[in-house]
């Protein structure tokens, strides 16, 4: 498993090496020792306490979601299909504050993102169905959900496909400007 630094500070991309043969493939999707060694923080991998999976149909957008308080660290990968995944750094002290970066996550390369606390995250499903798997380092608490509209004009996220569906929560999410007033 290789590890690359993303453009956004502290985000890393874990890149596995799938083994393919006539049966299909085998891939390690995560290696705690490699991950902890890269971060230089033993025990970080062991902190992931909840694993979740969502399935989305083509064109669906989920996002942009974050978490208030201590926020949460997240590992994100696409186990089936492909998604256009977007991160926004909302840490006021970060050198990449306010910047976004997009990644293709799919079931060919199995790129796996490590997203530290303090980011907004969202994605669009690019295939008939796309399964996204998450691991988070704190139990989910809906009271700490924060969000920004996926189509916020100031963010200007370039979703590759027409948006076919979003959740009721995402449809009424606030603006990036509104969130900025709460971050400073
Ligand atoms: C996110 C989450 C939701 N749920 C529940 C709440 C709700 O009843 C149902 C569906 O939740 P949502 O509509 O919020 O799911 P969704 O819109 O897919 O939310 C996810 O979006 C992506 C972009 C992320 O980054 C994730 O962290 C998460 O916020 O699942 C959990 O039990 N645990 C969780 O960790």
UniProtKB/TrEMBL annotation:
UniProt name for this protein: dTDP-4-dehydrorhamnose 3,5-epimerase
Class of this enzyme: isomerase
Lineage of producing organism: Bacteria, Bacillati, Actinomycetota, Actinomycetes, Mycobacteriales
Record function comment: Catalyzes the epimerization of the C3' and C5'positions of dTDP-6-deoxy-D-xylo-4-hexulose, forming dTDP-6-deoxy-L-lyxo-4-hexulose.
GO MF, one example: dTDP-4-dehydrorhamnose 3,5-epimerase activity
Coiled-coil spans in chain: none
InterPro entries (alphabetical): RmlC-like (IPR000888), RmlC-like_jellyroll (IPR014710), RmlC_Cupin_sf (IPR011051)
GO BP terms: dTDP-rhamnose biosynthetic process; polysaccharide biosynthetic process
GO cellular component, one term: cytosol
Alphabetized Pfam families for the sequence: dTDP_sugar_isom
Entry EC number(s): 5.1.3.13
UniProt family annotation: Belongs to the dTDP-4-dehydrorhamnose 3,5-epimerase family.
PANTHER family, alphabetized: DTDP-6-DEOXY-D-GLUCOSE-3,5 EPIMERASE, THYMIDINE DIPHOSPHO-4-KETO-RHAMNOSE 3,5-EPIMERASE
Record's subunit section: Homodimer.
Record: active site: 65, 134
CDD domains attached to this UniProt entry: cupin_RmlC
Catalytic activity: dTDP-4-dehydro-6-deoxy-alpha-D-glucose = dTDP-4-dehydro-beta-L-rhamnose
Pathway named in the protein's UniProt entry: Carbohydrate biosynthesis; dTDP-L-rhamnose biosynthesis
Keywords: Isomerase
Record keyword Isomerase present: yes
């Amino acid at each position: 498993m290789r590890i690359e630094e993303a453009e956004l500070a502290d985000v890393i991309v874990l890149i596995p090496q799938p083994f393919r043969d006539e049966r299909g493939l085998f891939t390690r999707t995560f290696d705690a020792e490699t991950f902890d060694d890269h971060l230089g923080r033993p025990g970080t991998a062991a902190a992931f306490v909840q694993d979740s999976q969502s399935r989305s149909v083509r064109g669906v957008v989920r996002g942009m979601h974050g978490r208030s308080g201590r926020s949460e660290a997240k590992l994100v990968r696409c186990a089936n299909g492909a998604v256009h995944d977007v991160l926004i750094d909302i840490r006021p002290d970060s050198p990449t504050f306010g910047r976004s970066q997009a990644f293709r996550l799919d079931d060919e390369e199995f790129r796996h993102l490590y997203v530290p606390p303090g980011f907004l995250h969202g994605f669009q499903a690019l295939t008939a169905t796309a399964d996204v798997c998450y691991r988070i380092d704190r139990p989910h608490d809906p009271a700490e959900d924060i969000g920004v509209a996926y189509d916020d004009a100031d963010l200007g996220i370039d979703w590759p496909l027409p948006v076919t569906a979003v959740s009721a929560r995402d449809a009424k999410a606030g603006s990036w400007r509104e969130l900025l007033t709460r971050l400073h």
